[in-house]
Design goal:
Helices cover about 30% and strands about 20% of the residues. It has about 350 residues and is α/β, with parallel strands linked by helices. It folds into 2 domains: about 220 residues, Rossmann fold; about 100 residues, CobW-like, C-terminal domain (Hypothetical Protein Yjia, Chain: A,domain 2), CATH 3.30.1220. Helix 4 packs antiparallel against helix 9. The structure holds guanosine-5'-triphosphate.
Length: about 350
């Protein structure tokens, strides 16, 4: 019996819009389907892979920066080939793009893999219901991403009022009036909706109606990323405005526990330019020695608590933003390490953000 082709779905969306949350929901509710996951995070520490680890059958992290700009696409291709092996018996593959990846290039990368065992499964694009309307003004590229989406998920509906939701819906519809639009919280969508997404025939520019070869794709990626040799770089860069231009990340790893009060201040009032902070942290506070997963997205803080489960009690944080002063961020991160000063209620500044895992 021949196996049906495996859909390869790209999940994209701005920083912190809820991609990992949606993916985790999908993995927990796959109803027996085996899902292969490819995570493309930004920065050298792959926090998203850490947050998905243990749930996916096979997680392949690409931590070489932005996949769409990786001139050597072999990493992604090898990962897909590995997931497509009949022995892996994978029913669907989901690629979680970094929050600043260029979805159009990712889609082309997938459609360029000329492998009869797979088919392109659509672009799922997440929009943050609470911040989406302001973000698209500051980052007009977001509209171009929504435009090519096959399914638009307006997530974080719980954080938006009726008016905000109506505005975000109208914004989406203004640039894409054909893709299904789902309003959701915590990425709760029916997995069947994803696996059934069929690419639209009228894709902008017709890129999906014709498969690009990998060489063509790489040429295009090199062109788009301004990779024309050192002398040409500035000139080439001015020709395009990928969302990730100007974004930088600062990583932090410590074997020492962090100070909860200082961490809360860092999450609530991040350094100038920092939009997104995520990571896992350890505190040396009686009753609070579990693994804390912390997120801050444009001022919204969320924390989850779970057992370490045999993992090293290491604190790992990534701060992502535009125009951040890396030295200042480094310094603030270094100051998070606990110096043992007694602070009996300090942990409350973190636990007040605790949510139970959806
Ligand atoms: N209130 C609320 N918070 C949410 C919702 N969905 C996700 N979050 C939280 O938003 C934060 C970011 O969610 P992620 O799923 O990590 O977002 P992401 O798009 O993968 O983030 P990046 O990979 O950094 O771009 C986490 O704290 C989530 O728990 C939601 O519907 N409502």
């Amino acid at each position: 019996m021949t196996r049906p082709t495996v859909p390869v779905i790209v999940v994209a969306g701005f920083l912190g819009s809820g991609k990992t949350t949606l993916l985790n929901h999908l993995l927990r509710n796959a109803a027996g389907a085996r899902i292969g996951v490819l995570v493309n995070d930004f920065g050298s520490i792959n926090i998203d892979a850490m947050l998905i680890a243990g749930q996916a059958e096979s997680t392949v992290s690409l931590s070489n920066g932005c996949m769409c700009c990786a001139v050597d696409a072999d990493g992604a291709q090898d990962a897909l080939v590995r997931l497509l092996r009949p022995k892996a018996a994978i029913d669907a593959i989901v690629i979680e793009a970094s929050g600043i990846a260029e979805p159009r290039a990712l889609v082309r990368m997938v459609t360029a893999f000329d492998d009869p065992r797979m088919r392109y499964g659509g672009l799922v694009y997440l929009v943050d219901a609470a911040t989406g309307s302001q973000l698209r003004v500051r980052h007009p590229e977001i509209d171009r991403h929504v435009e090519i989406a096959d399914l638009v998920v307006v997530n974080k509906a719980d954080l938006a009022g009726e008016d905000e939701l109506a505005r975000v819906r109208a914004d989406v519809r203004a640039v894409n009036d054909t893709a299904p639009l789902v309003v959701t919280a915590d990425g709760v969508i029916d997995p069947a909706a994803l696996f059934d997404v069929v690419p639209r025939a009228d894709e902008v520019g017709g890129t999906r109606s014709r498969q690009l070869t990998l060489d063509e794709l790489l040429e295009e990626c090199a062109h788009e990323s301004g990779d024309h040799g050192p002398g040409d770089h500035d000139r080439a860069d001015r020709r395009h405005d990928h969302l990730h231009d100007g974004f930088t990340s600062v990583d932090f790893v410590s074997d020492r526990p962090l100070n909860p009060r200082r961490l809360a201040e860092f999450l609530e009032r991040p350094p100038a330019g920092c939009y997104r902070i995520k990571g896992v942290v350890a505190f040396d506070v009686p009753g609070h020695r579990q693994r804390f997963v912390v997120h801050a997205v444009g001022g919204f803080v969320r924390v989850q608590r779970e057992p370490w489960g045999g993992r090293l009690r290491t604190s790992t944080l990534v701060a992502i933003g535009v125009g951040m002063d890396a030295d200042i961020v480094d310094r603030r991160l270094a100051e998070l390490v606990d110096d043992g000063e007694p602070d009996p209620n300090g942990v409350l500044s973190i636990t007040r953000y605790l949510v139970t895992a959806p």
